[in-house]
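Researcher: Hi, I'm a grad student and pretty new to this. My advisor asked me to get structures for two proteins we've been looking at. I'm not sure of the right format, so I'll just paste the first sequence and hope you can take it from there.
Model: That works fine. Here's the first sequence with its structure tokens right after it:
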Amino acid sequence: MKTKPVILIVDDQSQNIELLEAYLAPQGYEIIAASNGEEALEKLSGNQIDLMLLDIMMPGMDGFEVTRRVRQDDIHRLLPIILVTALHEKEDRVKGIEAGCDDFISKPVDKMELLARVRALLKVKAYSDLMNNYRKELESEVAIRTKELKQALDDLKQDITERKLTEKALRVSEEKYRMVVENAKEAIIVTQDMKVVFVNRAGVDMIGYSEKILTPKPFTDFIHPDDLNMVVDHHIRRLKGEEVQSVYSFRILSQDGKVKWVELNATVIKWKERPAILNFLKDITDRKLAEVELRQTLESLRKAFGTTIQVMISAVEMKDPYTAGHQLRSADLACAIAKEMGLAQEKIDGIRMAGSIHDIGKLSVPSEILSKPTQLTNAEFSVIKDHAQSGYEMLKNVESPWPLAQIVYQHHERMNGSGYPRNLKGDEILLDARIMAVADVVEAMASHRPYRPALGIDAALEEIKKNRGTFYDNAVADACLRLFREKGYKLLT
């Protein structure tokens, strides 16, 4: 028997899968991974999956197409799907919704946001599964009772007509359904011709009006004005048979004037032989308030983190006045390179943070070595080289949405494995660190050092061009050269 919720992670980048698994596995989730859309559909058909975390930009079948195919399968049409994406354009998100996704989360993934969204959708799925199972059990019970009534009809057909027995069977079924509906904890509302035609006890309690007042009124009277157009649009499209997001949230106005957040799960039914919408509503006001509080807390933490980084920058520059400004100039150039390469703003923000403290490990280097006005000896240079390892040790336990410690650790590695401290090669080096390496070299060569005068920007760019593909990543080197030679970029003064 399955004891853990199973999450299928689909991404063509193994490090993204490993990161998501690192966040989710300790929370008690079982993880299944797929590296492309075809593999994802294969694993979906062979396993009992509770939720899918799906990357959009993948070779072959992209995340939108995978979502559409999943929604075409009756077995998985209600499977919660979260698109994990670096895309921020409104059109891309609309495309995801139209494909049938339930939610989005942006790259780089925030751990707390990821866990909150996964828990919320798994709760919705658990509730949906419970309701589906309950409906099946109820339908089975109705079928049994109907069969019993039919047998009774055969026994009593000399005294009563078949029509009366059928009516009796229907009354029994209706009473059973009404008993279930009236005692449900979720609000159940049936709307037809834009009006409320049925509401259960939980719905009356949620909105605050009596059933007598509710049932003849248009349901639009109880929806917050800012959400009205969206809710009406979903309602009309669902009645037309168009594909509409099955679960979504909006605000309602209760009789006492309070605004409540509700989550809706709706489906088209027949009500008195005419099309209608069966709506299941759950009050999620407390959850929404908690989300707002969480966002405020995260913003406060972000500001505090920025202040800490600034203190670190000041500490390094006080230790090594000759390189004052080096970290910030390197960080600015690294961000410009990342932007030229088309990287997401969130990733650029992380590169700026790491660049601003990439030499923090120099705090462990004696001042007389850092400020020595002559060429360093081999022994002294070995001490200097330890700053990458020292910086990593200082930052490795710092909670951050970005891999700051690893960027600091790797910014002196080289593509051919000749760098330090671990002789990493090629893709073993984070892209962020490859960008930082080029920016660090250009700024260092172009600036004055205690043991030599500035070599100048031309010499620095010639170094990048000469060792492009050997020491430095091709794409990073090309972006750097374009900035200076075609777009007029200049180092900060």
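Researcher: Oh nice, that was easy. Here's the second one.
Model: And its structure:
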Amino acid sequence: MTYAVTALTVIVFAQTVALWRISRGMSGVARLGERLSRFAEALALLTDTTEAGLANVANELEQAGRRRASRAAARTSTARRISSAADRGRSVEEIAAFEALSESEIRLHLHMADLKGDDDGALLS
């Protein structure tokens, strides 16, 4: 009889230890689910941020292309205005003041126009 009670006590103790270990394992699985949930939220945030950033980059590239085209047009119109002002007899100083450019820039525009054959080069001195 003592052997039976001892055997039953050992079996109950073994089952208690097994239940305790299983319950600890289950809490680890619950924590794993929470961590997985946080990682999924972080990935969603990262995805949204990346999409927004790439959309901003695409937008800036489009605007830069438009700005480049408008700058080239502005340069062309500035060169035309400078050439026509020189043709009308204005001095380099007057043109520089009107265009808000330096006199050396005005002379450069006139020199470039002269190389193209658009100006007689009278004000280059």
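Researcher: Is there anything I should tell my advisor about the second?
Model: You could mention this: The two ends are 127 Å apart (CA to CA).
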